[in-house]
Amino acid sequence: MDNNYIRWFEDITIEDIALVGGKNASLGEMYRELTSQGVKVPNGFAITADAYHDLLAQPGVSAALHDALDALNPEDVVDLARRGARARDIIYNAPLSGNISSQILLAYTQLKAEYGDTLSLAVRSSATAEDLPTASFAGQQDTYLNISGDDALLDACKHCFASLFTDRAIHYRVDQGFDHFKIALSIGVMKMVRSDIAASGVMFSLDTESGFRDVVFITAAYGLGENVVQGTVEPDEFYVHKPTFNLGHRMVLRRRLGGKKIKMTYSATQAGITTVNIPTPVADQARYCISDTDVLTLADYALKVENHYSQKIGHDRPMDMEWAKDGLDGELYMVQARPETVTSQRAANLLETFHLDGSGELAITGRAVGARIASGKVRIISDVANLSEFQAGEILVADTTSPDWEPVMKIAAAIVTNRGGRTCHAAIIARELGIPAIVGADHATTALHNGELATVSCAEGDIGDVYRGDIPYHVEQTDLAQLARPATEIMINIGNPDLAFKTAQLPNDGVGLARMEFIITQAIKAHPMALLYPERITDPAVREQIIALSHGYKSGADFFIARLTEGVGTLAAAFYPKPVVMRMSDFKSNEYASLLGGKDFEPDEANPMIGFRGASRYAHPAYADGFKLECLAMKRVREEMGLTNVILMLPFVRRVAEADLVLAKMAEFGLKRGDNGLQVYAMCEVPNNVILIDQFASRFDGFSIGSNDLTQLTLGVDRDSEIVAFDYDERDDGVKAMIRMAVEGCSRNSIHSGLCGQAPSDYPEMAEFLVELGIDSISLNPDSVLATTRSILALEAKLGRAPRSQSGDSK
Q1: pLDDT, tens digit, for every residue of 508-538?
Q2: Is 330 within 8 Å of 409 (Cβ atoms)?
Q3: Whether 468 contacts 360, CB under 8 Å
Q4: pTM
Q5: Residue 787: how many CA atoms within 13 Å on its side-chain side?
Q6: For 103-115, how does the pLDDT look when each residue is reduced to its tens digit (9 = 90+)?
Q7: Shared-domain flag, residues 531 and 638
Q8: Helix/strand/coil (H, E, C) string of 720-753?
Q9: Cβ count near 361 (within 10 Å)
Q10: Confidence of residue 710 (pLDDT cuts 50, 70, 90)
């Protein structure tokens, strides 16, 4: 009997890679196993690799392929293109047998019986060695979309078979050490998800930059997904926190609006249906292309896919997935899932940190990929035809990249593109190659110049920088498995949510000081009272800016709460379930005035450092409404996001009566100490906090000593004044005496004692002093965590204190 060349998805498992390829095996696995769990996968069938083998078995086909490929020089781009074209012609012109064709068309008829005669198809290549744990083969073969009719389907299948020999696929197999003749091609034929009239994208079950595994990272853009994959559009981005999602808290952790300037849709031509990019309406660019409900549905899909594959292999398996929303039925579908092959393969305990050792003129910025730094000569490539101009070790600068560019990408020092997001082709390949990339830099191809030296830095957060010149840098490597945890808790000072996932990889016991001011300055930019009362703003231009900021939100208050929630939530999620001590806003009046609209709501003070700041603002009529917004955001983080590891901290609490007043105001705004496990700390930075430590201790769950302000007020030195800076020293005996009394007072009252000032980061002897006091925790700047941890371990050994454990259990 003739071979059965068709295998329906419901009859395919992940073990069938040799027969139907990785893509089809995964689709079948999801369709069989996860449809019952609510994960939607479009139905379809695979044309097995046997059909491809039979194609090659026709007289003369295999010999002609060997003749085309055996003498290939993969580094010769011209030779590669010539031989690849010959190989594709050989496969395309080999006729499909009547039996293969008839089986394909019969299955097509059966699929139309399920979905209706108007069904359009996606015809997708699926190589038998693709989607392996260490080699993705992503984008190496072709896909044909919106196919309808018998002839069009058979022609698309022939093109798919031929695409096993695209230039990029040939080169990739050579790089990965795969034999061209030991790989076959299967074809997936499935219901076309009409994302051309909706949205689509890529998602990962980890953060692609840091490797942080407690989030689902989703990208989305209007139209077909090719633009997201290839990086021709800057997509919207979303994060969902896995642990709290699994506990029933359904909230988007963080979102970022992408440009989405174009969308890929279909266009009818004389040759048939093809794809075309059209401008996205301005109104659509300004809003997210999918709803929060969609994001949470996709996160649910991602977790179910990851859990299923992890259970099959007995350990965690982060996944790289593609999804599409159907504009006809409104449903979300999974259209691909494969193991994530880059970030998850990194050595778990090896921490590698890049540091710039100089500065230079900033030429361009964009989305950072890779957390690395590289220098080299700029080479701008405008078209694939010019790839032969590129030299090894140069910085590749282009509008965007595609798989055809990979031969030169692998010899680049870094990559910079005008367009693209963090899941685009350039980003994926850069991670795979271990080089830095900056995508979505908008006008890199005009801002940079051929032949100039430049330094690409992706080591400073989500935003990547290209500097002119060769700026020196160094790389710090730490084997975390060899680093024990001190008895003294080592916490981290942080304010920038962009750095949270990366910083959380340092050995730590949580965050001792999270600075709300950074989030307000960077993500909100406006004074909270100005957002609440724009009519009080005297400058019409500023009023318009305030209104524009909150566009897309119900109100200025909603904008403030949403952005602050996301920033604080990201910090809390990165370190979850470890404690994250979030200090309520501690701007001085002059700093508040510098925010957009702030001048109309702030007093003009001679010495803001000891003026209207900290707790004194919170219950005051001039700011109480703004403080309410802060509290509502913190309530949302803890209760709706489920991030109950957030501890709130009040700064600059001058008097006991003031503490009572502010705690009462917090309770009025929904943050009552003790409810839902809420702990409230206070900064210990006013001498009165130390003098009346026992009274303050009865009102708070812990104290964090702010050595900066405590030094200022103990020594009577304005720390903003350069002329008396010589008198400012945290190591002064008087300051140390105040710190000693504070630590002893906390111990006496059985509440937490910590220190979050600059001193232990700058002066190792201060860290030693604190350890000898028996302080519970020291919170350090990220760049001093490793060195200070080592010195504290050495000191504790002298004091006879045993370390707690190895740091492998730290996030």
Answers
A1: 999 999 999 999 999 999 999 999 999 999 9
A2: no
A3: yes
A4: 0.86
A5: 11
A6: 999 999 999 999 9
A7: yes
A8: CCCCCHHHCCCCCHHHHHHHHHHHHHHHHCCCEE
A9: 10
A10: very high
* pLDDT at 174 > cutoff 60: yes
Crossing angle of helices 624-635 and 556-575, in 10° steps, is 50
**CB atoms closer than 10 angstroms to residue 809:** 9
Residues 469, 488, single domain; the answer is: no
Per the annotation, the verdict on 756 as an active-site residue is yes
Residues 508 and 590 in one domain: yes
Q: Mean of the pLDDT values across residues 201-229?
A: 94
The CATH number linked to 578 is 3.20.20.60
Between residues 723 and 246, the one the model is more confident about: 246
Q: Residue 513: CB partners within 8 Å, gap ≥ 6?
A: 491, 493, 494, 581, 583, 649, 704, 756, 779
810 is a domain residue: no
CATH at 308: 3.30.470.20
**Catalytic residue, candidates 171, 180, 425, 527:** 425
Residues 301 and 355 in one domain: no
Residues 678 and 723 in one domain: yes
- Domains identified in the chain, total number: 4
Q: What's the length of the chain? A: 811
* Claim to verify: residue 287 and residue 427 sit in the same structural domain: no
- Cα→Cα distances 514→297, 517, 583, 777, 790, Å: 31, 9, 6, 15, 23
| Domain-located, residue 327 | no
User: Are 585 and 732 found together in one domain?
Assistant: yes
Which has the closest alpha carbon to 595: 553, 554, 560?
560
CATH number reported for the structural domain that contains residue 404 in this entry: 3.50.30.10
Q: Which domain, by its residues, includes 363?
A: 350-478
Q: Round to whole Å and give the CA distance between 512 and 491.
A: 5
244 and 181 in a common domain = no
Cα-Cα-Cα-Cα torsion 501, 502, 504, 507, nearest 10 degrees, comes to 160
Measure the CA–CA gap between 568 and 548, rounded to whole angstroms: 23
- pLDDT tens for 758-809 read 788 778 888 889 999 999 999 998 878 888 898 899 999 998 899 986 544 4
Q: What is the pLDDT of residues 638-656, one digit of tens each?
A: 999 999 999 999 999 999 9
- Distance linking the first and last C-alpha atoms of the chain: 58
Catalytic, 425? Answer yes
Query: Is residue 145 one of the residues assigned to a domain?
Result: yes
In contact, 618 and 229? CB cutoff 8 Å: no
Q: What is the CATH number of the domain that holds 114?
A: 3.30.1490.20
Give residue 808's pLDDT.
Answer: 40
